[in-house]
Each structure stands twice: as structure tokens, then as C-alpha cells.
Amino acid sequence: MMTGLGLHVVCPSCGAINRIPKDRPAGQAKCGTCHQKLFSGKPVTANAVTFERHITRNDIPVIVDFWAPWCGPCLAMAPAYERAAAELEPNYRLLKVNTEEEQSLAARYGCRGERHARYRILGEGAEQRSAARRQRELTTLKAVVPEMC
Ligand SMILES: [Zn+2]
């Protein structure tokens, strides 16, 4: 939940939930538990466990790239997705889910066969937003990352 006390951000290194005060630059923040930077400008590879934590405990919206290693368009888009992380952090967390390795997640989000790859904006941070704001976020996302395959 977003509170007056700051934003909750899940550490991509150790999973600890950090609270970033509103008057601090979130992009510089380090994890209070493992002391790694909370934002490195790169997408974070998630498995079933870390994925769940990111989408339920972050106050920022979480963008997920469900990709497959055998998919040419997915691989071609990867550099653009990396650049998107640098551009969209710390307002968003960008995750990558390998749908071959995380088949339960792939099934849950309807990523099967030809329909494996897509970007999604998920998480508490996203769900608290108004429809208009979510639409603006989608527009931002589409401007930064290429069309999904
Ligand atoms: Zn940490």
C-alpha cells in the first residue's frame, strides 16, 4: 500500500522490502538489508517466488516481459527492453520471466506457444492507479519498448 511514509520497493537482490522516503531520490536508494542498489537500470530476472513478491509488495507498477529463448522477436526486443529499464526506473520495476523455465507463470498469464511473449503491467502499484493514469503509463511503455510479438 502507498502511504504517506514513502514507497515500498522490493530489493531485486535479496527480496527485502524497503521503504523509500518520498523526499529521497529513489534511483539512488540502497537496500537496507543487503546494501545493493534497488535500481540498477536493468531488467530483473524473476522466478515464480520472486515474481510473486514483486507484484504483491512493490508500490511501483511492475512491467513484465514474458519471453521465450526460442523466439526470435523476443530476443530482438531484449536490448530495447534493457534500455527501457534505464529510462523507466525508479518509477517502474521491469522484470523478465523466461516462459520455458517458469511454466506455471506462463500458464497463469496465458503465455503459450505463439502467444508466449507480451508485456504486462502488474502489481499493487499499478492496481491503485486510475484508469486514465494506467492508460498514460501504457502509452509511456509503448513509446519506450517496441511492439510486443
Ligand atoms: Zn537487498
Task: Describe this entry's structure for a reader.
There is one protein chain. The chain is α/β, with parallel strands linked by helices and 149 residues long. It has one domain (40-148): 3-Layer(aba) Sandwich (Glutaredoxin), CATH 3.40.30. 34% of the residues lie in helices and 18% in strands. The chain contains 5 helices and 6 strands, in the order E-E-E-H-E-H-E-H-E-H-H. The strands form 2 sheets. The chain has a 4-stranded mixed beta sheet, with helices on both faces. It is globular and about 45 Å long. The structure holds zinc ion.
Features:
alpha/beta; Glutaredoxin; 4-stranded mixed β-sheet; two-stranded antiparallel ribbon; 34% helix; 18% strand; globular; binds zinc ion
N- to C-terminal separation?
Answer: 33 Å
Task: Note the total helix count.
Answer: 5
Count of strand segments: 6
Tally of domains: 1
Amount of beta strand: 15-25%
- Quick check: average pLDDT? 84
Ligand inventory: zinc ion
Largest sheet: 4 strands, mixed
SSE series: EEEHEHEHEHH
Spatial shape? globular
Tell me the CATH superfamily. Glutaredoxin
Multimeric state of these chains?
A: single chain
Strand order of the largest sheet: 3-5-4-6
The CATH architecture: 3-Layer(aba) Sandwich
